[in-house]
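Lab channel / #folding
Pinned by the channel admin:
"Please post every new chain as: sequence first, then the structure tokens as a reply. Keep commentary short and put observations after the output so the thread stays searchable."

First post following the new format, from NK:
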Amino acid sequence: MKNITNEPLVSIIITNFNKSQFLLESVKSCFKQNYKKKEIIFFDDKSTDNSLKKINDYKKKNKVNLKIISNLKKKKNTGPINQIIAIKKSLNLTKGSYVFLLDSDDFFHKNKINEIINIFRSNKKNKMILDQPIYKYKTKEIKKNYYNSKLKNKWPKFPPTSCMCFEKKTLKEVLKKIEFKKYPNLGIDFRLAVYYSLILNKFHIHKSHLTYYRQVKESMDSIYTKYRSIKWWKRREEAFEFLNYILKRNKLPINKGLDFFVTKLFNNILSI
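Reply from TO:
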């Protein structure tokens, strides 16, 4: 794919909490992009490891244009809520027309920005574009595929946060509408995917695998992966509640179905 002439400025927001062993790979993948016109904002959410020292040392040694934000007044929220707050604060400092999200334990393929911006500019209707993830384990890599049709379902399936890219103007408006103080276990990826797919219908899932999504035990998502976990069922219940909240607010039909009542039942049983 050819490089774009008159490149728009792209803002990359990297959010970090205690990922010192991976964050440099994440940051370097942004600087190695074939796309030149970009800014990188690194938000550290009061890490207790040596993340801040490592990223500041990297910036000083390599003399790179990297904006580092340290959240020294972190409140005792859940991981998902802290991530949403980090993205909202970082977004206010961006100057780009498009925003790419990246968790600090994931990293980009070198052609990612160039490919995604080409898609944005070829179809102005798209306000959110998602690429395909490559699940990266210690000993193997697995490509996972998502399809546009899946996001149109009542229970949308979608790529992870680091695969999400946005037209900034619309993103700022959407963030005002996806109630984030409620549903403390529900991540920003689900909230945004629901709104862009079910309410705006202005999204596109790109076929290329351009994001390496690391699978580690320390990942924020790992505590939710086992369906026997109370937190897994609680997050699922919050997802239903959020879906119903968004649909009702936009005067769209709500059909809870059997899955909703099963989720409610398991939450009641596990909370005893």
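NK: The CA atoms of residues 9 and 227 lie 42 Å apart.
TO: also worth noting, The radius of gyration is 18 Å.
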